[in-house]
Design goal:
By secondary structure, this protein is of the alpha+beta class. The protein has four domains: about 1-35; about 40-50 and about 250-340, Elongation Factor Tu (Ef-tu), domain 3 (Beta Barrel), CATH 2.40.30.170; about 55-85 and about 220-245, RNA polymerase II/Efflux pump adaptor protein, barrel-sandwich hybrid domain (OB fold (Dihydrolipoamide Acetyltransferase, E2P), Beta Barrel), CATH 2.40.50.100; about 95-210. About 40% of the residues lie in helices and about 25% in strands. It has helices at about 1-25, 30-35, 90-115, 115-150, 155-185, 190-215; strands spanning about 40-50, 55, 65-70, 75, 80-85, 215-220, 225-230, 235, 245-250, 255-260, 270-275, 285-290, 295-300, 315-320, 330-340. The strands form three sheets. A six-stranded antiparallel beta barrel has the order 1-10-14-12-11-15. A four-stranded antiparallel β-sheet has the order 2-9-7-4, with no helix packed on it.
Length: about 350
């Protein structure tokens, strides 16, 4: 008989809820009798979460796990290191890139500063030597040509003297060109090319350092470590099948409740909520609705109770819990949401 009365009551509530929904879908406020027939509490299953959803982290680069810096349950701060991969290869790439950058800077400095003083002095000495030898050769050529006119030397001897002068003139021109090159300032296009090489080398350093930083996984926010899914010596990376470390901000607790279709339109922001857990029968927690999903979605959380409907959709409702001592992230709970008709 009691079972019959219970079922009759539930059926009456469902019919009343359907009637209210139908009225409001037509833009008409339902009669007070239909609203009064609806229950003042909405029951729904839920699961405890932190102030953020669980965050599964993986290293951005592949590598061997060599150090765990925190333990499960530890509270960590934003940017705090959580684990490290073997970084020997990454460090070598950084050192190589920095050496290439230093070389590019040195080449530009040499281009701007020009040749060393000793090189310039040597070039000037070569010019003076070539000029002196050319002067001597030209003087000798003058005497040879005078003797040639008097047939005192052979034609071959005169040709050799002229060839020596031509050779020394070319040698002097080369020495003067070399000196001019050493004393000339750097060309604008050469400076731009040197600057481009420095920029490229600096980019390579930045990239190598960024890759090295990625061998350390850091916390993205203040949070608590919930789980590790890797062992020391294991090869892990961005394509690992499971998250290496799981975090959540548990400084404040929330409950994600799943309200079924007939009750979903009646949940309002700010509505008071009562929360209970089977494992904590002596505790009752209070909270309030802080956000509502704008859509219905397939049911993802079940209670396993005999009278539960499975082929239905639910609306996610986020409840902020006041206090929450004893609640654990991931714990399934029951929520009772008060309606405005209460």
């Amino acid at each position: 008989m009691a079972r019959f009365v219970f079922l009759t009551t539930v059926l009456t509530a469902i019919v009343a809820a359907s009637a209210v929904i139908d009225y409001r879908s037509q833009g008409v406020e339902p009669p007070l009798s239909d609203i009064a027939a609806m229950p003042s509490k909405i029951a729904a299953p839920g699961v405890v979460e932190g102030a953020t959803e669980e965050m599964g982290l993986r290293p951005e680069v592949a590598g061997v796990l060599v150090e765990l810096l925190v333990a499960i349950g530890d509270r960590v701060q934003k940017d705090q290191p959580l684990l490290r991969l073997d970084d020997r290869e990454a460090r070598l790439r950084v050192e190589s890139a920095r050496a290439d950058l230093a070389s590019a800077v040195a080449q530009r400095d040499r281009l701007i500063n020009g040749a060393r003083v000793q090189e310039r002095d040597e070039a000037r000495a070569l010019v003076r030597s070539a000029a002196a030898r050319l002067l001597q050769a030209e003087s000798s050529l003058g005497r040879v040509e005078h003797l040639e006119r008097e047939a005192a030397v052979t034609e071959q001897e005169a040709d050799d003297a002229r060839s020596d002068v031509d050779s020394l003139r070319a040698e002097l021109a080369a020495a003067e060109a070399r000196l001019a090159q050493l004393e000339a300032p750097a060309r604008e296009d050469e400076v731009r090319l040197a600057d481009a090489r420095i920029a490229s080398a600096q980019a390579a350093v930045d990239y190598a350092e960024l890759s090295h930083q990625k061998t350390t996984v850091r916390s993205p926010c203040d949070a608590q470590v919930l789980d590790f899914n890797a062992e020391l010596g294991e090869l892990i990376g961005p394509t690992s099948p499971t998250s290496t470390v799981v975090l959540a901000d548990t400084s404040r607790l929330r409950v994600r409740a799943f309200v079924e279709e007939l009750d979903a339109p009646r949940v309002m922001l700010g509505a008071p909520v009562t929360i209970t857990a089977d494992g904590l029968p002596e505790h009752t927690y209070e909270g309030r609705v802080v956000s509502l999903s704008p859509r219905m979605a397939a049911k993802t959380l079940t209670t396993g109770r005999p009278n539960e409907l499975h082929d239905t959709k639910t609306r996610e409702v986020m409840v902020e819990v006041r206090g929450g001592a004893g609640l654990i992230v991931g714990l399934r709970v029951d929520v009772s949401i008060s309606t405005l008709s209460e």
